[in-house]
Amino acid sequence: MNSTVLIVIGVSVLLSCITIIVLILKKTSGARAIFRAKHEAKEILEKAKQEEEKTKREASLEAKEKYLNLKADFERQTRDRRRKHNEMERRLVHKEENLERKFQSLERKEKDFAQKERSLYSREREITEQKEKYDQLIKQEVEELERVSGLTQEEAKKELAKKVEEEAKLESIQAVRRIEEETREKGQVLAREIISQAIQRSAAEHVVETTVSVVDLPSDDMKGRIIGREGRNIRSLEMATGVDIIVDDTPEAVILSSFDPIRRELARLAIEKLVVDGRIHPARIEEIVETVKVELEEKIKQEGESVVLELRIQDINPELIKLLGKLKYRTSYGQNALQHSKEVAYLSALMAKELGVDSNISLRAGLLHDIGKAVDREIEGTHTELSVELAKKYGESEAVIQAIASHHRDVDFPSIEAVLVQSADTLSAARPGARRELLEAYIKRLEKLEEIANSYEGVAKAFALQAGREIRIIVESQKITDEKASLAAKEIAEKIKEELDYPGQIKVMVIREMRAVEYAR
């Protein structure tokens, strides 16, 4: 029993000791954990401080770097502005010096001019005094001559001028006849050969235009749609295109009337597009017309480019190319202006090659000789004057400009190329079928030709032949000699040129014959 109690007590004491030991151990372990935690917290704080310092240093460095960059940019901009300012200052100083020099130069010139003006005034006064003295002497001499000759000054002048004029006419007629005969003998065969070869080698198409165009319609019902309610569609078309639209009894067609062929073509294309589109009302009409205008301008440009490419002409101004394209829609006496210009270019260039002169000048001048017809409806002036102005404006050479200026003999021929252009223009216009005239105008021209010829003194009869391209004049042999017959032909030709408008050229032939008639009884 006692032993049991002792054992129990011993065990209890042992358990107590163990418990105490365990408690002591736990307390020691917690202290160490707290110590470690404190140590770790301290390390974390130190690291945080280090990171903070590092961040501060980096931020400080970055701020310093940005500051330096901004400072450098500011200094660079300041230097640039200072340099520009200095440059402007130098320029201003230089300009000021130039102005000062010019001002001094003007002052010197003004002084020289004033001195020369005084000198000229003095010289003019001396000349006036000398002139008065010489006029007095001449007056005395003239009075003495009038007294001796018994004629006044005007009478003597007229007598002398008349005599000199008659002698000069006879001498010039004889000289012209001799030169013409020599030239005709030598040049007739060669000229015919060159011209015939040139015409044979030119194969241009010829189109006859009028002032009206006909647009075919799919049915007569389309006429009503073109007219529109109360005529609003047809009015919109006429206002947008500037063309008179005639809707009459012609089956399945409307007629477009205008003296401007480009407007007529614009209206024709617009109506065709509207018929295909089917939507015909004022808004759509305006839209279609604007679209067709752009397309037509492009087509005109392409026409000009194709002609330049076909003739192989280089370095021609784009504006001249557009104007060439416009000539496709321009006619003269029914002859298409663009085809006529191409033909003149071909003929003049071919003849130039045969004669060994500059074919490039002839080609360019031949193509551009009627370029003024593309704008003569918009700008006042003859087509020759307008052609010369356009050629000058767009950089053509002086040789080409002079050839254009003389193609209707408004000025004297400056070169052989100019003569060839004029000849080619005449050939193209005078070729049978090239141009067309109204019957009334044709008859009036023939009557006017004969009237001009019959008005000349000494003419017995006059006959217009070959569709008005030749006039034969029979003169009275008692009144007109052989020499005066040549003079009569020239004077009648000049009078025809002054009073009559005609395409091509007119041949004037004066015939003089002497008939001796006797009767045997």
Explain this structure to me?
By secondary structure, this protein is mainly α. The protein has five domains: about 130 residues; about 40 residues; about 100 residues, Ribosomal Protein S8, Chain: A, domain 1; about 120 residues, Hypothetical protein af1432; about 70 residues, K homology (KH) domain (GMP Synthetase, Chain A, domain 3). Helices cover about 70% and strands about 5% of the residues. Strand 2 and strand 3 form a beta hairpin. Helix 2 crosses helix 14 and helix 9 packs across helix 11. The longest helix has about 150 residues. The termini are far apart. About 0% of the residues have low confidence.
Topology, please?
Layout: H1 2-149, H2 153-201, E1 212-216, H3 221-227, H4 232-241, E2 244-246, E3 253-257, H5 261-277, H6 282-311, H7 318-326, E4 331-332, E5 335-336, H8 337-355, H9 359-368, H10 383-393, H11 398-405, H12 416-430, H13 439-454, E6 459-465, E7 470-475, H14 482-499, E8 507-511
Parallel strand pairs: 7-8
Antiparallel strand pairs: 1-3, 2-3, 4-5, 6-7
Helix pairs in contact: 2-8, 2-14, 4-6, 5-6, 6-7, 8-9, 8-12, 9-11, 9-12, 10-11, 11-12
